[in-house]
């Protein structure tokens, strides 16, 4: 009977011990150098702290009333922008998402839709907003176009990936009944991706609201524009009121979208 | 009647799945297709409804060359051939009724199927089928709420809703327990007998095949190496199909076959 104790250790992720140590030490060294290269102007920081404190003070006494008209107008614009852009974006992303799914779309359609979605996703919302503001002028229309485009990029990609992940045997079974292409899409594909599509659309709704606040800063209208104006005037109490409203609405939409997503699963 | 002549299939990877298969299935005949994994059983039945494109040979259903039909007209061919799947392949998120009615998709225009407005005749037929397979109480349940045996019954009802001339059955019992497997095989065989519906049943359980079908076709490496009665499955034949192993435990067929003796089966099938 063999009495030797057999040792076992989990095999390391990187088998070569020298490479493992070199990578670890290299990462540490890089972090050290990177931290050393940061130039911090401490005088500027102490000055900024004062300004930051005024901001915090504004937050402690948010002023909802003196700019209430502007705030309400901005809010109304933002919500309109969010709803219209989400509806238009979802409606457009469905055909593009279907076209960008490799398993159901023919190759030329697939490449066109993929390219379009990739293009829509390349630029951050703020950049797209700057472009549309330059093209269509200040206001909510530029914001609407920005959010629609980025919704198509976001939902189109996720929908396409979802369609590529569906259970193929269900598709095969429906095809075997003699169903046409649209019927296969309706019975085998839609049935499988619908709950997630609804969940993602609601999720995109709350992203769009948050983004509407950001793109307003570059002139695309909505509550962001109101916020920007307040900041420019150093009216931190009004700005704080706007931010608090944004936070409240985002939390509300987040809660609602979470609830909806749980329901459709 | 189904006639397959010199059917061949070579996949793009170069794998030769089928090699000169010739087979005739008479009206009302139930054929059990056995063979090891990779023998080409699944490919063979998928060539018949052209879910897989054959690379050589000819398939004739009721005199029409299925292999010559243009892709555009495939739905009209597929709707004549019912198929039952290994993992049921129901659309999980649709109701039982929608799954059964999906068997009618080849017959109704898109708008009707999209609005779920199927002709009354189809709906009556679907209810009758659900009664037949014993699921009348589950019409509006979602398919994923059913047990394995129940799901396969929905699969059977969906295939029958097509009013097929031929039934293709791909490992119907592979995901079921032994008792349910027997019930499902019995149900399939009874239904085939009732309607004089010819069927090809892929099955890896030799004992089950011997018990329920009257003719067995053995595949090995994409070729037919046996075609005959279940009684003819001697050790030599089984070795030719599956390779060398101990076959002594395999029970001899006990004459309970359905298309051979449908009356006897109907009596034992009362508990289904």
Automatic annotation (TrEMBL), chain A:
TM stretches of this protein: 21-43, 79-105, 126-149, 239-260
Membrane topology: Multi-pass membrane protein
Highest classification ranks of the organism: Bacteria, Pseudomonadati, Pseudomonadota, Betaproteobacteria, Rhodocyclales
Entry GO MF terms: ABC-type phosphonate transporter activity
One CC-aspect GO term: plasma membrane
Keywords: Cell membrane, Membrane, Transmembrane, Transmembrane helix, Transport
InterPro entries: MetI-like, MetI-like_sf, PhnE/PtxC
PANTHER family: ABC TRANSPORT SYSTEM PERMEASE PROTEIN P69, PHOSPHONATES TRANSPORT SYSTEM PERMEASE PROTEIN
UniProt name for this protein: Phosphonate ABC transporter, permease protein PhnE
Subcellular location as annotated: Cell membrane
Family: Belongs to the binding-protein-dependent transport system permease family.
Domain ABC transmembrane type-1: 75-257
The UniProt record lists the keyword Cell membrane: yes
Record SUPFAM superfamilies: MetI-like
Tagged with keyword Cell membrane: yes
UniProt main location, coarse: membrane
From TrEMBL, chain B:
Any one annotated GO CC term: membrane
Pfam families: ABC_tran
This protein's UniProt keywords: ATP-binding, Cell membrane, Membrane, Nucleotide-binding, Translocase, Transport
Entry annotated with the keyword NADP: no
Top-level taxon of the source organism: Bacteria
Positions of the ABC transporter domain: 2-246
Gene Ontology MF terms in the entry: ABC-type phosphonate transporter activity; ATP binding; ATP hydrolysis activity
Name of protein: Phosphonate ABC transporter ATP-binding protein
Native species: Pseudothauera lacus
């Amino acid at each position: 009977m063999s009495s030797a104790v057999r040792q076992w250790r989990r095999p390391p992720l990187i088998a070569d011990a020298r490479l493992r140590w070199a990578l670890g030490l290299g990462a540490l060294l890089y972090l050290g150098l990177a931290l050393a290269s940061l130039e911090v102007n401490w005088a500027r920081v102490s000055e900024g702290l004062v300004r930051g404190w005024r901001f915090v003070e504004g937050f402690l006494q948010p002023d909802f009333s003196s700019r209430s008209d502007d705030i309400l107008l901005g809010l109304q614009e933002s919500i309109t922008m969010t709803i219209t852009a989400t509806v238009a974006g979802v409606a457009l992303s469905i055909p593009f998402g279907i076209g960008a799914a490799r398993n159901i779309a023919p190759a030329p359609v697939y490449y066109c839709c993929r390219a379009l979605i990739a293009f829509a996703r390349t630029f951050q919302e703020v950049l797209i907003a700057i472009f549309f503001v330059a093209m269509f002028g200040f206001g909510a229309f530029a914001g609407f176009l920005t959010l629609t485009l980025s919704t198509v990029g976001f939902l189109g990609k996720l929908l396409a990936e979802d369609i590529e992940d569906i259970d193929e045997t269900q598709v095969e079974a429906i095809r075997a009944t003699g169903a046409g292409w649209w019927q296969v899409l309706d019975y085998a594909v839609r049935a499988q991706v619908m709950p997630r599509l609804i969940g993602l659309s609601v999720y995109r709704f709350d992203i769009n609201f948050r983004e509407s606040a950001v793109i307003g800063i570059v002139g695309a209208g909505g509550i962001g524009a109101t916020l920007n104006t307040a900041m420019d005037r150093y009216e931190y109490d009004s700005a704080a009121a706007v931010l608090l409203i944004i936070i409240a609405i985002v939390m509300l939409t987040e809660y609602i979208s979470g609830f909806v997503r749980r329901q459709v699963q | 009647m189904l006639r397959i002549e010199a059917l061949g299939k070579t996949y793009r990877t170069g794998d030769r799945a089928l090699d000169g298969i010739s087979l005739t299935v008479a009206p009302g005949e139930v054929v059990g297709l056995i063979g090891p994994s990779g023998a080409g059983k699944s490919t063979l039945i998928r060539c018949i409804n052209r879910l897989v494109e054959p690379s050589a040979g000819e398939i004739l259903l009721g005199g029409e060359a299925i292999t010559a039909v243009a892709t555009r007209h495939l739905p009209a061919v597929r709707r004549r051939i019912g198929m039952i799947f290994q993992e049921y392949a129901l659309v999980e998120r649709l109701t039982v009724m929608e799954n059964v009615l999906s068997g009618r998709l080849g017959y109704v225009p898109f708008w009707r199927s999209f609005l779920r407005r199927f002709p009354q005749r189809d709906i009556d037929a679907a209810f009758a089928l659900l009664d037949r397979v014993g699921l009348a109480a589950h019409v509006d349940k979602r398919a994923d709420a059913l047990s394995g045996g129940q799901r396969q019954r929905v699969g059977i009802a969906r295939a029958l809703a097509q009013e097929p001339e031929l039934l293709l059955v791909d490992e119907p019992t592979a995901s079921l327990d032994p008792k349910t497997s027997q019930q499902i095989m019995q149900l399939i065989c009874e239904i085939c007998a009732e309607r004089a519906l010819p069927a090809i049943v892929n099955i890896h359980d030799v004992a089950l095949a011997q018990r329920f079908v009257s003719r067995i076709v053995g595949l090995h490496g994409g070729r037919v190496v046996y075609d005959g009665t279940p009684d003819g499955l001697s050790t030599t034949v089984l070795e030719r199909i599956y390779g060398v192993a101990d076959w002594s435990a395999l029970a001899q067929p006990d004459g309970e076959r359905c298309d051979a003796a449908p009356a006897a089966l109907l009596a034992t099938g009362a508990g289904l």
